[in-house]
Fold this protein.
Amino acid sequence: MRAVSTNRPYLAVAALCLVIALVAAGTAAAGVFLRGDGSTAPATSIRGEQFEFATTGVYAYNAERIVAEGVGWDVVTLLFAAPALLLAVPSIARGSLRGRLFALGILSYFVYQYLMYAVFWALGPLFGLFVVVYSSAAIAIVWIVSGIDVAALPSQVSNRFPRKGMAVFCGLICLALLGMWVPRIATGMSGDMAGAGLFGMPTLTVQAMDLGMIVPLAVATGVFVWKARPWGYLLATVLAVKGVTMAGAICAMLVSAALVEGSLEVAPFAIFGAFTLSAGWLAARMFRSLGVAAA
């Protein structure tokens, strides 16, 4: 009798990750190369906020600043995030724990990015792809996590795993997001829509997602990894990889916006640049401390 391959479940989720990476790369490429000729027109929101919006390309009807930031984010997705997931596919297919944990971080990045695009950007030709990527990435996350023996993770890492460093990093993420977004929300609630930077949108979607998703995730990760709980090891590796891609994408967004507006927001760029390097350093230490055996 022919033996049944024990890697079959991993092959299926690896195939899903392959599709997600290719679709995300194509979607990001459309955002970069089909963004239009840069034409804009003035508009006034129903709340009296004046802004310029793009009139051409796949991101038409979005504020000029939003389009500039999105193109920067798309560049990171196209050149780094999607290729990273593609490179992880063979490891996922073999059932590598490192490969699956790394993929979880990239998939979490895709869920955040394309969920935000789907609910924040003006309706356009890429809307369906946004929904496909974030929903498929969410399915892949659940699928991968369901195949990991979380309780056994502490036995598969060495004492070089940077538990305390990751806990501090999580705390700094929370402080940075709260420090940036709470004053901006307060500004909007006071009636100063221009100061809140809605850019014609009805609400502060990014701030809601950061404070409602990223901050609680960072708090849980920091607490669990500090206490050496099994879920802390899983969440720490996911958040570290996601931190590299997200913070790097924000740096790219700020640079892209600066090319349009003529000035770089130096303080945020320095903060998120430091987060990118710190997350990369932590992620490297985590993955070096992990075993390579399949679950």
